[in-house]
Amino acid sequence: MPSPESLAVRARLAQMKAAARAGPSPSLAEQRRALEAMAANLPLPADVRVTRTAVGGVPAEWVVAAAARPDRTFLYFHGGAYYMGSAASHRDLAARLSRAAGARVLLAEYRLAPEHRFPAAVHDAVAAYRGLLAQGTDPSRLLVGGDSAGGGLTVAMLVVLRDAGDPLPQAAVLLSPWTDLACTGPSLKTRAAADPWLDPEGIRRAPALYLGATDPRHPLASPLYADLRGLPPLLVHVGRDECLLDDSTRLAERARAAGVDVTLAVWDDMWHVFHSFAAEVPEARRAIEEIGAFAARMLP
Predict the structure, then answer these.
(1) Contact 122, 153 (CB under 8 A)
(2) Which position among 32, 111, 131, 232 has the lowest Cβ density within 10 Å, counted as fewest Cβ atoms?
(3) Which of 179-199 are b and which e, b meaning 16 or more Cβ less than 10 Å from the residue's Cβ?
(4) Tens digit of pLDDT for each residue in 237-293?
(5) pTM (2 decimals)?
(6) At a CB cut-off of 8 Å and minimum separation 6, what does 63 contact?
(7) What is residue 136's DSSP assignment?
């Protein structure tokens, strides 16, 4: 049974979704502000340090909990459909991941569409990763990951690094990854009524902002269509009630078929990137604890 806290958040998200459908379409700036506002009232614990930086020429923030080990690093890419999101919108989640994984988290701020279309985000992700290695980060002590668009971006980055012969990280964590910008997943229809947050029509409109005229099945835009052989172990979390459920389940199936070690967790009664609501939702806190346990297994 879902917790009372998760039911309350679900009701709030559903109200927001209904209001957005009833009113005029918000502008790009309004959508960006709304995502930032969702995290604005989440104060960080006093023992979490936040430091602005740039790695590989990519603006970023170090988010480091007191329990984090200096020799463990987690490179994280925020979600937001490639056209919104920032370190500010994901700082609370990064702090929780830092504490759970015992790692310092680098929140990379890749360039956003439509000002910077595909493949700018992929270039920035690769540059940030290579920048970390150039600073001396040991790839065997390195996790990478992201949520939603950031999850898809993580897989695209791994494909580029593999093909270029770069040392790969120890493992990757993907939270509700957006892996099919062609929007072919059946769950866009089958989970539409259950999803309290995402609007299938909005999902179908979003890729054009990032892709322009690029084929939505390009493997670095939609890594569901990429050759996934040789990638490091993957942990994939997804909510059973989200429209993008099949973006995760199909990626896991194709990665396993390619010989990749995949751990897929489908969380009952949960929605898209429910981890971001850990301040209120106990299921989200348990999911973050699972990520911490995965990090403990993967990092020597």
Answers:
(1) yes
(2) 111
(3) bbbbbebebbeebeebbbbbe
(4) 999 999 999 999 999 999 999 999 999 999 999 999 999 999 999 999 999 999 999
(5) 0.98
(6) 48, 49, 50, 87, 91, 94, 95, 98, 104, 105, 106, 107
(7) T
